């Protein structure tokens, strides 16, 4: 019973921290060799929403550059980057979080945009100035979705 | 030979027969004028081996539109350009034709534009036309990418069709060219990309529904199916910058003029295709 209470307290504590306030802001994200070990929000990613963000032209638009058999209902898959089938077999969750947050730290000089930075742009359109392409939760959702892309 | 192989051969030759265009197709206009759509890259485009016209990468049905002037929707606009060329405008009571005679007197000009003038300034065809309007005709300048301007510059460009692009990059042009090159390789916008990321590193690759070309300007002003009008070079640069969520430079401004020179120079050796058709 004691343990149960303790667990409940911990759970409540965690639920309490998962507010917008505790979202890791872009400049505070800690990278370790291109990977990000801590969730950006503390809220478990929603893979179903991540799938939508992945395809949405105004959000991830990952399909612009990556083919993905899981989204075969979408026409036109790009071929600038590698197909993402089996991405979760090749990369850990932390690595995928790092790649989506700022791929430039994993792949030097890549054309792939950094989806969770909000500074350092040159001549951004005013309405995007100081903003990241994806929100912290959208990054977590996309990462959760990428973790479902398994071939093995 | 087994039957399957025979069938394949038959199918192939059938395809060859109907394939009027395609990536290996030759652009012959009106069954008589052959365009150079692929050439060895000029030495100053050091990261390219071959250069290709944007026509090469377009879908068959788009390619075909440029193969016959009767099918090419841009000719509605060059006809309008001819009317403008012949019409008196401004306080001096002059038309372009009054002073310049037949528009074919401009043959060869577009292939060399933009260029540096005797004052050491980089000038574009658009500026030359507006100069005549304001200085010699007493007429108002047209906006940089106005429909009248693209119509007249396309008409002038058509006089160079089939000639190789040959812009000068040395001497007085060198500093402008260097500036253009710097802009070409600078990453901009929220998506943080440079022209080269798409048009040099990834040409002939699909980016979602678009087949990336080298971003050559030998066909400008170009008719785009997307907006059903003639598009200026600077208008196109602007569109590409907006797509990567960058604040575009000003049309007719120093940056786009320098970029125009640099991009044109990467196409030295391709035929002028004005007015081309793209999607």
Structural summary, described in words:
The complex is a heterodimer of chains A (152) and B (279). In chain A, helix 4 crosses helix 5 (136-146). With 152 residues, chain A is mostly helical. Chain A has a single domain (24-146), classed as Cytochrome c-like domain (Cytochrome Bc1 Complex, Chain D, domain 2, Orthogonal Bundle), CATH 1.10.760. The radius of gyration of chain A is 17 Å and the shape is globular. Chain A is 33% helix and 0% strand. The longest helix of chain B has 16 residues, at 3-18. Chain B has 2 domains: 20-72 and 165-278, Cytochrome c-like domain (Cytochrome Bc1 Complex, Chain D, domain 2, Orthogonal Bundle), CATH 1.10.760.10; 75-158, Cytochrome c-like domain (Cytochrome Bc1 Complex, Chain D, domain 2). Residues 1-20 of chain B have low confidence and may be disordered. In chain B, helix 3 (75-86) packs across helix 6 and helix 7 crosses helix 10. The A-B interface holds A 57, 61, 63-65, 75-80, 111, 113-114, 121-126, 128, 131, 133 and B 186-193, 197-198, 201-202, 205-209, 241-242, 245-247.
Summarize the structure.
The complex is a heterodimer of chains A (152) and B (279). By secondary structure, chain A is an all-alpha fold.
**Uncertain parts of chain A:** 1-18
CATH topology (fold) name of chain A: Cytochrome Bc1 Complex, Chain D, domain 2
The helix count of chain A comes to: 5
Mean pLDDT of chain A: 90
Which CATH class of the largest domain in chain B is shown? Mainly Alpha
What share of residues of chain B is helical? Answer: 25-40%
Q: Report the principal-axis shape of chain A.
A: globular
Measure the end-to-end span of chain A.
41 Å
Number of helices of chain B: 10
What sequence of helices (H) and strands (E) makes up the elements of chain A?
A: HHHHH
Query: Structural class of the secondary elements of chain B?
Result: alpha+beta
